[in-house]
Structures are given as C-alpha cells and as structure tokens.
Amino acid sequence: MEYRFKKIGIIGKFGAPTVGETLLSLTRCLLEKKLELFLDKDTAERHPENNIPVVTREEMGERCDLAIVVGGDGSFLNAARSLARFDIPMVGVNLGRLGFLTDIAPAQINAHMEEILRGDFIEEKRCLISGSILRDGEYISKGAALNDVVVHKLDIARMIEFETHIDGEFVNRQRSDGLIVSTPTGSTAYALSGGGPLLSPTLQAIVLVPICPHTLSNRPIVVPGNSKIEVTIMGPSGHAQVTRDGQSNETLVAGDKIVVERYDHAIRLIHPPSYSSFQVLRQKLGWSG
C-alpha cells in the first residue's frame, strides 16, 4: 500500500514510565508498514533498546515528512518549538494528564496511524508567538512559544508593576502578579486558569490575561494575531521573570521590555478523522457531565 508519509520522526516524553512500552508499540506498528523511522537523539539516550537511526531535531525536521510525539502536552510544546520552522506535520500520542494537543490514546495507535498514513486525517495550522527581551536598546534573548509568553513575579508575595502597549498605543499600567500573553492554542492552558476566554484553536488572535490584578476592572483582552505587544517592567528589579510555554525562564530587571508578536512559522497539527475540538473540550473540561 502507498502511504502518505514515508519518513517518520519519533520523539518520546522525558521520564515517563510508560514511554518505553508505547514507543515499542508505535515503532512495531510503523516498521510493519515498511516505513523509514528516525528516533530523536534525547529519546534514544533514555530508550536505547529501539534499534532505529538516531537524529537531532534539526536533522529530523530536514529529513522527515511526519513527526510523532509520544508524551503529554508539555512534550508536544517542546517538540513544536524546535520543529515549527521545518513545516513538518506533527501528531501526538497522549501519555499525559489532559492531552489537548496529543489526542491519540496508546491503545488506538494501530487504528489511528493506519488512517493518518493513508491520508485520512484532519490538519490544522496553529500559530506560535515569539517573546523577546529588550534591555537598554538591545535584544538579549528571543524564543518561540506555542501556548504562551508569561511575565510574572518570582517567588515572593508582592505584585509587579508594568505598562502594556499594543501596536505602539498605550493600553494600561497595572500592578498584578503578571500577564499571560497567549495563542488560541494556549487559551486552554494557563490563560484559562487566569479567567481568560476559550479561543477557537485556528483563530488568528492573541489574548492578554492579567494574573490576579490589583484593580479588578483589568480584564482579558483579545487582539488581532498580527499585533505587536510590548510589556515594560516599571517596578524594582529582581522579582520578575518571563516564561515561554512554562519551560524556559529568564529574570527581568526594571526597564526591560518584553516584546511579543506572531512567530514567523506555524505548526501543522494532525488529528485522526474523528477529531472534534468541541468534543475535546467536553471531555477534558467535564462539560455535559
């Protein structure tokens, strides 16, 4: 049989006890179909029993026409940031708690992979955002995020103070525990816990959600996806930081400007043909229970 995808990269979750078993099940399924497999270098170091060629993320992006992430949403976020610029379709096998991004259960690998490999799937394009730190007129760091860029206080019981501008226009100055700048994908993550709205995942928009604001009239704002958002730290230095997707942290000082805008690349997210975003919300959030 002629399959849609022939060179497949596999990435496994770090430290999950069930990853090894699921990886073996997945690779067995794919090798039976005579497909060419490549294993992520970090995954191979933890699971050397898989006799599959090992590649870096960059090599995977250049050589493969599909990437499969075995893990939870955190593993998928990490993989998406490293592979987005290669325009490689991605699919997730869920070993996490929620699975908003990794929607194939291990028991369904054989059935769903057969569908996807035949070309029977739903594909979405999900936007990413970039978060940069501008200090004394120079950019000192930059990184992509699929869920969110968060400016927040450190581990002390005091608020931070900052100003927000959108496309050069002053929005407000607030004191709060921070600000979540989220993609539609991230609207089901930290932004949701902060009281933000749920956005349709393919919407071209960005949502700003204040974290425990001192003034209760500070509410979430949804802006166009091509907006340029600038958050400037106004208070004392040393007790604020910026986090991307909850996986990278950098300390901020007074005067730092965090610039958030749409990333140059999107990800191509593959779902089984039975996928429904509203069904996922009903299941994960306990609606209609």
TrEMBL record:
Residues given in the record as NAD(+) binding sites: D73, G74, N147, D148, R158, R175, D177, T188, A189, Y190, A191, L192, S193, Q247
Family: Belongs to the NAD kinase family.
Catalytic activity: NAD(+) + ATP = ADP + NADP(+) + H(+)
Keyword field: ATP-binding, Cytoplasm, Kinase, NAD, NADP, Nucleotide-binding, Transferase
Descriptive protein name: NAD kinase
Keyword NADP: yes
Enzyme Commission identifier(s): 2.7.1.23
Gene name of the encoded protein: nadK
Primary localization class, coarse: cytoplasm
Function: Involved in the regulation of the intracellular balance of NAD and NADP, and is a key enzyme in the biosynthesis of NADP. Catalyzes specifically the phosphorylation on 2'-hydroxyl of the adenosine moiety of NAD to yield NADP.
InterPro entries: ATP-NAD_kinase_N (IPR017438), ATP-NAD_kinase_PpnK-typ_C (IPR017437), NAD/diacylglycerol_kinase_sf (IPR016064), NADK (IPR002504)
GO BP: NAD+ metabolic process; NADP+ biosynthetic process
Species this chain originates from: Candidatus Thiopontia autotrophica
UniProt enzyme class: transferase
Cofactor names: a divalent metal cation
A Pfam family the protein falls into: NAD_kinase_C
A Gene Ontology cellular-component term: cytoplasm
Taxonomic superkingdom: Bacteria
GO molecular function: ATP binding; metal ion binding; NAD binding; NAD+ kinase activity
Subcellular location: Cytoplasm
Active-site residues annotated for this sequence: D73 (proton acceptor)
